[in-house]
Amino acid sequence: MKKILKAILPAGFKANGIACGLKKSGKPDLALLYSEIPALAAAKFTTNSIIAAPLIVSQKHLKSAKKIQAVLVNSGNANCFTGKAGLKDAQAAAGYAARELKIARNAVLVNSTGIIGKRLDITKIKQGIPELVSGLSASGIQKAEKAIMTTDTFAKEISLNLRIGSKVVHLCGIAKGAGMIAPDMATMLCFIMTDAKITKQALGKALSAAVDKSFNCISVDGCMSTNDTVLVLANAAAGNSVISGGKDLEDFSGALECVCLDLAKMVVKDAEGATKFIQIDVCQAKDFQEARKIALSIANSALFKTAVFGQNPNFGRVAAAVGSSGFKIKEDQLKIKLGSLKQKQVKLKVTLSRGKASATVYTSDLTPEYIKINAQYN
Amino acid sequence: MKKILKAILPAGFKANGIACGLKKSGKPDLALLYSEIPALAAAKFTTNSIIAAPLIVSQKHLKSAKKIQAVLVNSGNANCFTGKAGLKDAQAAAGYAARELKIARNAVLVNSTGIIGKRLDITKIKQGIPELVSGLSASGIQKAEKAIMTTDTFAKEISLNLRIGSKVVHLCGIAKGAGMIAPDMATMLCFIMTDAKITKQALGKALSAAVDKSFNCISVDGCMSTNDTVLVLANAAAGNSVISGGKDLEDFSGALECVCLDLAKMVVKDAEGATKFIQIDVCQAKDFQEARKIALSIANSALFKTAVFGQNPNFGRVAAAVGSSGFKIKEDQLKIKLGSLKQKQVKLKVTLSRGKASATVYTSDLTPEYIKINAQYN
Q1: What number is the ipTM of this complex?
Q2: Which CATH code is given to the segment(s) B277-376?
C-alpha cells in the first residue's frame, strides 16, 4: 500500500472546477467529477432530519440508477431549507450537467455546501456548465478541490495505491470541512474515486466501516450539518479480479479507511479558527461505541476546548465531560493523561479500566477566531 | 403571591458569608445557611457520574438525618475528582460546622464550587468557621450570596410571599452559576429557604416539578457540572396548616417554580462572556420533552450562538439544530421566527405543527469573552 499526499485521479476519471459566480469573492465554486466508465457508487449522508435538496435528489438517483457517471458540486450555497423551489433547483442542476455530458440525469449526483436557507442561483450554474464540462481533464482534480472549499484554508486530498491480485488499484479522495462538523453522520463533503473492480455490496460495507472509524470520529463544534456526504465511485478500470470478500476486501477496506481517516484529520487540522489539533484516545472501555462516545463527549466540551486553547491543563473538565457521557464511570476507574499543551498537536489519553476496547477521536480547540468567523458568516 | 427582587430570609433562618482565604483574590468564599428550627429538606443533584465529594456527603446526610439545620458552602474549589482525601475533607468540613453550631454532623449539608481536581484547603475552612458561625444573622443572606460566587458578576436572589390558608408563607432563594451550565441535572448551586409547613413528599414533588421547568430549561455551554445542586429547606415556622396536596400544594409549587425560574434566568443573564439573553420558544410539539429537547438542541448549537453574538440572523443554523435533535422533523413542518438581534434580549420562536405542547428554554450567546474567561480559568 503506497500513500501519496496529493490527489491523482484513478484511470477513467476526469475532473474540473471553475468560478461560476456563486461566491461574491470570485473564487472557484463549481466542481465536476466524471467517470468515462459508469461507476458503482456507495454513499453515506447526514443523519440530520433536515436534509439539503441536492442530497434528496442524489439519494433518489442512487436508488434508480445502477451506475453513476458524474458528481456536480457547488460551494457558496448549501441549497438547504429552501423548500420545493430548492428541490427543483437541484434537479435542474443535475439535468444541465447530464445534458452537457450526454448521459442520463440519474447518472448525475449533486451536492452543495455553503449557507443554509438561501435560494441557489441556478442560472449561474446553468451558464457555467459548458465551460465546466469542456475543461474536464485527467489532471483536473486540484481545480475541483478548490471549487468545493468554503471556509477551508487548504485543499484536502490524498491518493493511495494497493495491489489486488496481479493488478494495482488506485484510490483518490478529496474533502472539504472547516465548520458545522460533528460526528455520527458521515461528516462534510468527501468524494473518493477508485478504479477498483468491486461488488456493490462489498463497496457499501467497506465505506460504512471506513466512515465509522474516520469521519464519525471527528468533531469541530458538535454541530451536525444538513449536507454531509461521503461518496465513493468505483469504475473497475483497474481490471482486477472483482473484490467481493476475503483478504482482497480486507485490503481494500483498509485502504479506504486510510483515505477517509487522513482526509478526516485534515478537516480537523483546518477547523475554523483552530490553533491545536487534539487526539483523544479512550482505552480500556467495554466496547468501541462506549469508547467513542466518551471521547466525543470530551471533544464536544466547550470548556475542555477553551482550556486547550489557553494552554491551561484542566483535568477536572475532562473528568466532568467523561462523567456526563451517560456511562456510569466512577472516579476511581478513571485515569487521565494530558500531554503538553504548548505543542500544536495535543494528546489526551483516558483509561477507564472497564474492558479492552478503545477509540480515537480527533478535534480542535475552541478559539475567539472560531467565533469571529461564525459571527460574520453570511 | 408577591415577588421581591431581593433575598429576605424567612422566619427562623440565619446566614453569613466570609473570606476564609480559599480565593487568592481575598473575596468572600465561605457561606453558611442555618435554620434555628430543624428543617425538612429536598434536593436535586447533578446526574454527572463524576460527583463532587461534598455532594456524596450531603446525599448521605439527607438519607440518615430526618431534618437538616445547616448548609456550609465554599467557593474557589469544587472538591471534585479529589478521591478519598477529598471525601474526608468534605466530611471534616461538615464536622467543624456541626461542632461549632452544636448540632449533629448529619444535620449539616456541604457544598463546593470552583476548580475541579484540586485538593481543598480544609485548614482555612476550619479556621474560618468560628467567625462564620458567630456572625450568623437574620439579615446575613447577602453576605452568603457573595461567598458562593465564582465567575458570577452579580448575586442572584429572590423572595416570594404567598398565602396558605390564613398564614403568609415566605420563600427565599439564592443561586450561583456563570459557566459549566447545561440542563437535565438541576444546574449549578441554588439554595431555597422557606418557613412553609409542608410534608416531605409534597416538598420533593414540588421541587422536581419546579426544577424541570427552570434549571433543566437553561444552558450556557452544554457542559454538565459535577457539583450541581438545588436544595430547598422548609422549617415550618410560618405555622400554616400543613401543605400535603390540593390547592395549597399547587400554590406552593407555583411559587417554588417562580423562584427557580427567576434564579435560572439570572444565571443565564450572568452567563460567562454573554452579550445576549436568548429565549427559545418551541411550540406545537408532540409533548413537553420533545419541545424542550429541540429547544436545547438549538440552545447548545455553537453556530446559532455565535450568529446571535454577531447579530447575524441565520435561519439555516436553527433548522440544522432542529434537524439534529433526533426527532424526525420535516422541513415543511418547521416555521422559524427570529426577533431582532440588535436587542440585548433575543426571542426565537420555532413552530413544529406536530402537536400542542410547548417549552421555553433560556440561553446566552457564545462570545470571544467566554473563551477568554475559560482559557485562563485556573
Answers
A1: 0.74
A2: 3.10.20.340
